[in-house]
Amino acid sequence: MTKKGCGFNGGACHKIVEGCAGCQRVINYTDGEYCMVFPDPSAKWRIGNCAMATHLKVEAAKGAAKINPIKASKRGSH
Predict the structure, then answer these.
(1) Domain boundaries, the chain
(2) How many angstroms separate the CA atoms of 26 and 29, rounded?
(3) In a 3-state reduction of DSSP, which class is residue 16?
(4) Fewer Cβ close by (within 10 Å): the C or N end of the chain?
């Protein structure tokens, strides 16, 4: 969605979904709220989290790093 209007799907952008609430990429227009990045936000949230969501924090997987068993056996023999 731009100031000139929407250029997606014949000029019809879709309004944001509840997962977009709080994102910095949401624009308020007179007829509703729209995403600046994606013309159809529901498609981005259908599979999982939106990749461009600014209000979500991605946590790194905490756990042991994967160790190559061959290298581990060589280290243990020293």
Answers:
(1) 18-77
(2) 10
(3) coil
(4) C
